[in-house]
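General statements about sequence and structure are easier to judge against a single worked case. In the encoding step, the backbone of a single protein was reduced to a row of integers, each denoting a local shape. The record that follows shows the chain in one-letter code together with its fold in token form.
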Amino acid sequence: MNKKAQRFSISDLGTIAIALVVAAVILGMGATILEKLQGTQTINGTAYNSTGFGLTGLSTMAEFIPTIAIVAVAAIVIGIILVFFGRPR
């Protein structure tokens, strides 16, 4: 396998940022749809409770977006440092 294909670079940050924005938009739209849907349902009904669980799940997933962003940036920075210091002299 080509080792160069496995390395991260600063140019990968743009791709990761776009992926995180798309994930945030999808989570936001999903939450909006579930909230609007829940408003039309009978309180404590099965459908109402199901949409409530969906909203809770989306909220939990959205809480991890900043952590995922930090880990992705840290992985790229560590990869760049390893490449820089790992060069033969």
